[in-house]
Known about the structure:
Chain A is an alpha+beta fold. Chain A has 16 helices and 17 strands. Chain A has one domain: Alpha-Beta Complex (tRNA-splicing ligase RtcB), CATH 3.90.1860.10. The two termini of chain A are about 40 Å apart. Chains A and B meet through strand 2, helix 8, helix 10 and helix 13 of A and helix 2 and strand 6 of B.
Amino acid sequence: MRTDVVVYASESLLEQIRHDLSLQQAVNVAMLPGVVGPSLAMPDIHQGYGFPIGGVAATDWNHGVVSPGGVGFDINCGVRSVTTTLAREEVRPKLAELVNQVFRDIPCGAGSEGSFRLTSKQLDEVLSQGARWMVEQGFGDARDLEFCEAEGCLSEADPAAVSARAKERGLPQLGTLGSGNHFLEIQYVEEIHDSDAARAMGLHLDQIVVLIHCGSRGLGHQVCTDYLAQMGAAMKKYGITLPDRQLACVPIQSEEGQAYLAAMRASANFAWANRQGILHLLRGSFRKLFGKSVRLDLIYDVCHNIAKRETHTIDGRKCDVLVHRKGATRAFPPGHREVPKAYRQVGQPVLIPGSMGTASWILVGAEGAMKETFGSVCHGAGRVMSRTAARKGADAKQVAKRLEEKGIIIRSETREGIIEEIPEAYKDVDAVIEVVHQAGLARKVARLRPIGVIKG
Amino acid sequence: MFEILEHTADVGIRVRAATLPELFEQAALALQAVVLDASRVRALETYPLSAEGEDDPALLVNFLSDVLFLLDARRTAFAGVKVEHLDQHSVRAHAAGEPRDAARHPPRVIVKGVTYHQFRLDRTPDGWLAEVFLDI
């Protein structure tokens, strides 16, 4: 190991963490050439491929490596949350209608095609400009960009670094939700823990909020596949050997490294455009049911599978690093220049989806994250049970009924979509949040409960 | 012959075959079984498959990535796969199938990628065994 592994967890979470390979994976990450600071494990850590999910590691920009496994197949899988001008009581009588409307309007599941038809030239523009392109086409407003991480676009993206295959996969998928653990959730604000931060975000009790969780779809998946294959072959050239082949990496300052980063940024931009498109469709769904005056305002949009060039202070020195966040969320503190002005006093919103039918959290980044974790925290609850185990003895109808008894309506394209995402398959999100709050990485702002779930 | 394996976040396939070309064929079918129900696929058209790799593991992973592209991007389901050529660094095959139809070939899970996580490709007394995990 070139550095330490630091794990953020409670005793009970650690008991669960010990049961899979996630800690070993964090150890393997500590062997990456040019790693700076510790290999970090967030409290929602679970076994991934190469990097654990819930893992953060930084490498020196000039001398270190970039690893696509440290970003994931779903480049810029992330979350955006929006406030609405509706209260829970207003929505309750129309909830089934609303869930059905959203399910009709937002394509999800395998083979779903989006309603945003692009030419190849337009796809290249999306890859360069991200959410900004969507807003310029009329699918949103300037505020949607201001309240998005990186303002919905990473510069130095290069559409030419994205393969024809990846573009073929992405072209029909703009404005689609995907499936698996991707979903859209209609929620209400159940608890407020920080009234200043809540006020800054326009949050209040019983307000209806919507959370969108999805990524770069087939385009990002293909980009990761393409570059993993390329890097696997190139590692020998750079004399890199690692204990886990899935940690395939090359020097950041290499042709392959720069090409991957340019393609990764393009994929990230596609994901932001995707979430912007879904938000546009969502606004349409709400207006159909509640009239033109209803407003959906973006609280924030965060990515949790990404690698970003950032400056961090380590042992008193300013370091230029590439921060890999694999199932981890950026959490910049109050005062940071990348936090939107409206939140500069309170910190960057951190959006943490729980598993289906449990709870989600909104937090704000704190100084502790900047000092200890490259400005990062967890991204969700983290799985404890395999999909196979979740399917045993579970019946989609029963799961849906159990959720309905809790006042939650679910619509899913597939039975698997429901069964595999049962709450028991995940860690306790409240326990995960408590760790990051107590560790001073982020501060609790609001707890939200679902009333409607749409997934593929 | 193949089976599906347990994994916390994802899905794996375990494949056994007497020869390496057969292993590649069975692995393709196993991957498809994760993605959709192939019991009613008809062999109406043929589709080429190919891959290169610096060694056998890379060859199998890259081949399965090509199969995934056929399934996911080209929206094709297949009744069978036949390997035509396999050497140390390349494989060529074809799949016999038809365009995907959600009613005839109900979708199961979207697979994002083929990984090297806990990858196995071993000779056994009866031939070959492979275990490959998929990101879903």
